[in-house]
Structures are given as structure tokens and as C-alpha cells.
Design a protein that fits this description.
alpha+beta, DNA polymerase, domain 1, hpI Integrase, Chain A, 17 helices, two-stranded antiparallel ribbon
Length: 432
């Protein structure tokens, strides 16, 4: 029998080669991937997910993008301009790792899948992180332009001079803290990676300069003041129980303190499981207390919050009161109150509102009244609630560590601020 040597046409798109790290212009990088139009007729196989995600960054260059591409825009790994990466002087109020455009090279039926992939990319980091990365890149691009340095490709010598400028007092502004400089270095590495380039932070022009900056300018971290139970009770008295805003603020303070929660965790809670896409957890009210399920940086964890000794200071009762009068049974727990305090909105509060609430209530309750007003205002923030629980709970340290979600007891001790530091006196214990 004659053997059939006819081969079936290959329908899959060719997988792209690794992105080039050459120092030549991005336009010189060939696009080795065939377009959908060049695929075999009748092809029905979906492209590989890697091909799909990489193609989402490809758009057609327009003259309006030329200036942005000159300063800080990179291009995708295949030499195509990416509008989000054009961070020069553009104002990206809502930075996103992938541009929200319809890709003409993708089949129309994959648009929804591409949008979903963008959502997952954005979910890989918080909105605050993306805003910080975009702001840091814009600052670096502006500095390079003023100094006459090219932004692409990444040059360790240029970055070394940049961090030196940040650590030095100049006419343009005061010197930055070491932690701020390290964060900006991380931002530059991330931004260059999105442009298919690699910034070598171990290069001597960066690593040696940073070692010197740490040795000369590093200082102990400035921690926020802890809110102790007596401070919290005084703060609660400054809030009006007869208004929706007052009920909401009381619930947020008590929940944040009793749970040892971060401000983003407080405002990220929903009434139930999987009720919103942007939720970071949910609550479950039980007879003896409340179970809070949270999604953190290291995964999911559960926080148990018991009922208080009185209804006035019980986080469970206070939260139930707020939900009852605000008529909230689904979605975000804490929302904006509008209409002169008579209407509850549908959108979730921002984490910054927790910091403002703690600061405002602490000032009204005259917490740390022994200090000047300006100094007191700088002491309190959202972390003051978390530090307050760690400093005041008279239980075994491992229970506090579990409540705060810390991986080590050493981290928990950093939160124990207004405590008896000499409770264990090694001098006397040694016989002196």
C-alpha cells in the first residue's frame, strides 16, 4: 500500500525567541512571530498563552507617541511601542502594566481573553504599588532628561549618579531616606524589566554607591505611635454615635485594633465570601466572636476577634450596629457616607481614610498631649492600631504573632512600642 506522505499544515503560531538585551534601538529587533493573517487557512487552534500575553503589548506607533517614546518609553520585546511604558512626561493617573487597547493582530474572539489577562497582570500588584512605580519612573526619566542622559538602555553608571543625587541635598529638593532610595531602585528594575531590559543592581557603580549611602545615611526606622486601650476608648468618645459616619468610624477603629489589621485589610473586607473582585477578605459573625478571613502577601490567614467586655467597646457589636443602620448586607463593609451623613454609597473606602481617621481621633482625644501639636500629628497613622494591640495584649507572644500574621517573633517585637522594656532585667538576673 502506498504510504501517504502528505503533511497537515501547522496551525499554531511560532513561539517567540527570548527578548534581546542588545544596546541597539528597539526597532532593530525583528518580529519573528507571524501574524494571524499568515496562518494556514482554517486554523482553529488557539495561540499559546505566552504568545497571547506578549502580543497584547503590541500597538501601532503614532506620531503623538514619538515624544513619549523618546524619553522612557521602551518597547515590547518584539520592537513594538507600548503606550503604558511611555512614562516620560505623560501623566498616567491609572498605570497599568498592559495598555487597554484592542490588538489588531489578535483575532476578535480573543479580545475578552486579552482583557482578562490584563486584569490578572494588574492583580499581581496593588494599585498603590503601580502608582508608586509609575511615579518613580517619571521622576527618573525627568532627571535623565535634565542631565542629558539617555534613558534606554539601562546604564548602571547613570543609575549610580541618580541614587547619589537622591542621597545628596540639592537645590531641587531635600535628600531622600535610604528606604526611599532602595524603593526607587526596585521601581527602576521593575520598569526596565517591563521594557525587556535588565538593570544589574549588583553592578559596582550601583552596589558600591548604595553601600556607602547605607553606611553614611542609614537611620533607625521612624515608627508610628501605638494606640493603647485607654487611648482608643478616649478616641471612641470623640465620635458621634448618633450619625452613620460616627458608627462607621467606631467600627473601623475597634475592628482594626482588636484584629491587629492593616488599613488595607480593614477597608478590603466584604460581608461574605467572594462578593467583590477587589475584596481582600470577609467576615463571619459567630456566637463568641467574629472570624475574619484575609488574603495577605503570603496567602490566606484567619483572624479570630472575640467579643468585648461591654457593648460600647465590643468590635462585634459595633460592627453589627453599623451594618444594621447602614443597611449593608452584601459587598464592602466600609463605604463612604454622603448627603450630610444620611446616605451610604456603594464604593469601598480607600485605605488612606483609616490613617486620617486615626490621626483625627487621636488629636481630638488629646492622645500624647505632652507633645507639641505638630509632633503629635506625625506620630499617628493606620499602623498605630496594629502596634497598639501588639503593645497592650498581655498574652503569650506567639498568640500576638499569629494575630498579626508575622512570620517571626522578632517582627512582632518591633510592634511592641509603648511597653515595659525592662520587664526582663538581665543585669539583676546576672547577680549585679
Amino acid at each position: 500500500m502506498a504510504r501517504n506522505d502528505e503533511q497537515k499544515p501547522k496551525n499554531r503560531l511560532a513561539r517567540p525567541s527570548a527578548p534581546s538585551h542588545s544596546t541597539g534601538p528597539a526597532d532593530d529587533i525583528p518580529d519573528a512571530r507571524p501574524s494571524v493573517e499568515n496562518a494556514a487557512p482554517g486554523a482553529e487552534d488557539l495561540p499559546d498563552i505566552i504568545d497571547l500575553v506578549m502580543e497584547m503589548g503590541n500597538t501601532v506607533e503614532s506620531p503623538a507617541e514619538a515624544k513619549a517614546l523618546r524619553y522612557g518609553s521602551g518597547r515590547s520585546s518584539f520592537g513594538k511601542p507600548n503606550p503604558w511604558l511611555s512614562a516620560g512626561d505623560a501623566d498616567h493617573s491609572s498605570p497599568s502594566p498592559l495598555p487597554v487597547v484592542s490588538n489588531p493582530r489578535l483575532p476578535a474572539h480573543l479580545d475578552a481573553l486579552a482583557d482578562r489577562a490584563r486584569d490578572y497582570v494588574e492583580a499581581a500588584s496593588s494599585a498603590n504599588t503601580r502608582r508608586a512605580y509609575a511615579s518613580d519612573w517619571k521622576h527618573f526619566a525627568s532627571w535623565c532628561r535634565r542631565q542629558g542622559f539617555p534613558l534606554m538602555p539601562p546604564d548602571p553608571q547613570t543609575v549610580g549618579l541618580y541614587v547619589t543625587a537622591l542621597a545628596s541635598s540639592t537645590a531641587a529638593g531635600e535628600k531622600k531616606a535610604v528606604s526611599t532610595i532602595e524603593r526607587r531602585l526596585s521601581s527602576l528594575s521593575w520598569n526596565y524589566a517591563q521594557r525587556g531590559q535588565r538593570l544589574d543592581r549588583r553592578d559596582r557603580h550601583i552596589a558600591t554607591v548604595m553601600a556607602g549611602i547605607r553606611n553614611r545615611h542609614a537611620t533607625p526606622p521612624r515608627q508610628k505611635e501605638a494606640i493603647l486601650p485607654e487611648d482608643l476608648i478616649a478616641m471612641l468618645e470623640t465620635l458621634d454615635r448618633g450619625t452613620l459616619r460616627g458608627l462607621r468610624d467606631r467600627a473601623m477603629l475597634l475592628l482594626g485594633f482588636a484584629g491587629g489589621l492593616r488599613r488595607s485589610e480593614i477597608v478590603g473586607l466584604d460581608c461574605g465570601r467572594e462578593q467583590t473582585e477587589d475584596g481582600r477578605g470577609w467576615i463571619e459573625i459567630l456566637d463568641k466572636g467574629m472570624l475574619v478571613t484575609l488574603r495577605g502577601k503570603t496567602g490566606w490567614r484567619e483572624v479570630e476577634i472575640g467579643r468585648g467586655s461591654s457593648d460600647a467597646t465590643c468590635p462585634v457589636v459595633t460592627l453589627q450596629t453599623w451594618l444594621k443602620f447602614a443597611r449593608i448586607a452584601h459587598g464592602p463593609l466600609f463605604r463612604r457616607v454622603t448627603g450630610e451623613g444620611r446616605k451610604v454609597g456603594a464604593e469601598r473606602l480607600n485605605g488612606q481614610e483609616i490613617a486620617r481617621l486615626v490621626k483625627r481621633a487621636a488629636m481630638a482625644a488629646d492622645v500624647r498631649g505632652d507633645l507639641a501639636e505638630g509632633e503629635r500629628a506625625r506620630l499617628f497613622a493606620g499602623h498605630s492600631l496594629r502596634a497598639g494591640l501588639a503593645s497592650s495584649a498581655e498574652v503569650d507572644e506567639r498568640y500576638v504573632q499569629k494575630q498579626l500574621g508575622h512570620a517571626s517573633a522578632e517582627m512582632t517585637r518591633k510592634y511592641q512600642r509603648r511597653r515595659d522594656r525592662f520587664r526582663v532585667n538581665l543585669t539583676k538576673a546576672s547577680g549585679l
